[in-house]
Amino acid sequence: MPSSLRNLHVVPNEPASKHSTAGVVEKIKIQGLHKTYLTKTGRTVALQNVDLTIGGDEFIALVGPSGCGKSTLLRLISALIKPSKGKLFMDGKPIVGPSHDVGIVFQQAVLLPWRNVLDNVLLPAEILGIDMKKARERAHQLLELVGLKGFEMRGPHELSGGMQQRAAICRALIHNPSVLLMDEPFAALDALTREELGFELLRIWAVEKKTIIFVTHNISEAILLSDRVVAMSPRPGRISEIVEVDLPRPRTIDMEFTQQFKSYSDRVRAVIGH
Ligand code: ADP
Ligand code: MG
Question: Are 139 and 170 in contact (CB under 8 A)?
């Protein structure tokens, strides 16, 4: 890992402004959303009556116990599955199928082992038929942004878990989507790398203004990174509390020890029962 990224607790490039929803263009709107899975053994109500509106440059953290429907909600937003009831809109239009305007990062980087880092990042550009010269330029910029300059020609197996996840973030951003969906992206990483990558993500978000929906089990991570923490309660998954995080930006690790942070944390914990 590049030494410049170690102990990156301050985010110098991040604008000092807050990302309040007030006045921000509405990017995603979810209305009366229900999702029931039908299986051989019965029905599982995964989501019940979910309403949420997300602003254009908002960073939303989605927290809740295992099985409360977080991944289901991301899959519905990315149109990988269809709702049982309710409506989803992006830019005011109903979400009917997968959109090029969305990038997704999962818990595992799943890089193709036979491709080097650069070619892994370029994969979606190839699939989407984007101008490869431009895509290559962008790939280099993104890799530099996440501290992977110099690792372009390496194989994924030569990278640490944190570096692989950085490459996966570049791959999700290569086609410049305006929405980034992240499903427990740092859950498989050790605590220090996880913390570094969180701040790294804020730096990317400052450069590449996106709507981010970030799923995590980690309440502190959720508060430290986001503008709003959406807390979901156990099955059937419902939004029980939305905590507006009024901490200044750039965020720093020492904010975790403030009374304000603790009160946010207590509110989220009360809902999700941790
Ligand atoms: P989370 O990501 O919060 O852990 P999920 O969205 O993965 O929760 O799952 C919510 C509920 O829906 C769980 O009870 C899970 O078992 C169920 N579920 C998820 N995917 C499917 C599926 N494809 N078929 C049937 N049940 C599913
Ligand atoms: Mg999940």
Answer: yes
